[in-house]
Amino acid sequence: MAYTTINKSTDYFNTVLYTGTEPSNKAVTGVGFQPDWVWIKQRSGTEGHYLADVIRGSTYVIRSNETAVENNRGSNGIQSFNSDGFTAGGGDDINSSGGTFASWNWKANGAGSANTAGTINSTVSVNTTAGFSIVSYTGTGANATVGHGLSVAPSLIILKNRTSAKQWQILHHKNTAAPATQQLEFYTDATATVTSQWNSVMPTNTVFSIGTNNATNESGESIIAYCFAEKTGYSKFGSYTGNGSSSNFIYTGFKPAFVMTKCTSNAGESWLIQDSKRIGYNGITHGLLANSSAVEASETYQEIDFLSNGFNWKGTDTRVNANNYTYIYMAFAEAPLVGSNNVPATAR
């Protein structure tokens, strides 16, 4: 049984759907907390992803589907992070009139504080209960370490050079036998051996390592990293092998609310995001792509069931479940299988 001290997952992660009201600002509520990292995607159109956080500021956008530098959207960006959500400004990417949107919201710990654990000083907003930190630092161009504040080694790091047009870099602890030697990006490429991003060193309880690559450590450039540690019954960053059949069950120890999947052994496959709100019942076929601005699509080949203790692929496409292909995933809970209050989750 997967017991957890996080009995209410929505205290730390929540998906909220909404409809745009441009030209009026849109107050998005129902998150359940003041979010520190917000990721928005228009479902009904081809506007790019909008990623904002409390350290960079709500109006400053970086996009998972682009390598572009950070952009201050001003009145067209998120105007504020509020106690129960956020206020979207006038931009089509977050508030087009009548447009439908998905927002994924995480709780860290506000504006952040200084961290001197690494050879590069960082600013860190950290929630050790939920295993999530937002880390900002300035690159030096030389091999270095950066403090992440989690007190345990992160299992996943999603990183972007904010001030130089470089590809996102992702360190996933289940990406091959030597993850810190791998290049993994918000792109369709398979994983490849490149050692300069993470200096071939896995994260420790206090720091993560960066090499000389400009994507993770360009001299004088501002860089943001989102770091995650696994929490039993709340989050899981795992891997699996596809079987090419209509049933491939992946155990997480909780009922998922959000699953993002990537095939790492085959080029040409996108990062697929599915959640429990956009369809609300099994089988879930509605997908958005982290590396693409494409409209939300409902495809049977990517069908998934969210169960009380994990997820089950019913689709057989190379994107999610091709025979003998290797995949990684990022998952957050709707409810634990069994919480510390001994209340079990139920299937959908």
Highlighted features:
single chain, mainly beta, 3 domains, seven-stranded antiparallel sheet, globular
Commentary on this structure:
The chain has helices at 92-95, 214-217, and strands at residues 13-19, 26-29, 37-42, 50-53, 57-62, 71-72, 78-82, 85-88, 100-106, 113-115, 122-127, 132-138, 144-147, 156-161, 169-172, 182-183, 192-193, 207-210, 222-228, 235-236, 239-241, 248-251, 254-263, 272-275, 286-289, 297-298, 304-307, 310-313, 326-336. With 348 residues, the protein is an all-beta fold. Strands 20, 21, 23, 24, 25, 26 and 29 form a seven-stranded antiparallel β-sheet that branches. A six-stranded antiparallel β-sheet has the order 1-9-3-4-5-6. It is globular.
> Helix/strand-derived class?
mainly beta
Over all CA atoms, what is the radius of gyration? 19 Å
Overall body shape = globular
Specify the number of helices: 2
> Biggest β-sheet, characterized?
7 strands, antiparallel
- Percent strand: 35-45%
Q: Give the overall average pLDDT.
A: 94
Domain module count:
3
Could you tell me how far the N terminus lies from the C terminus, measured between alpha carbons in angstroms?
Answer: 19 Å
Q: Based on DSSP secondary structure assignment, what is the total number of beta strands? A: 29
Helix amount, in percent?
under 10%
Q: Which stretches of 5+ consecutive residues score pLDDT under 50?
A: none
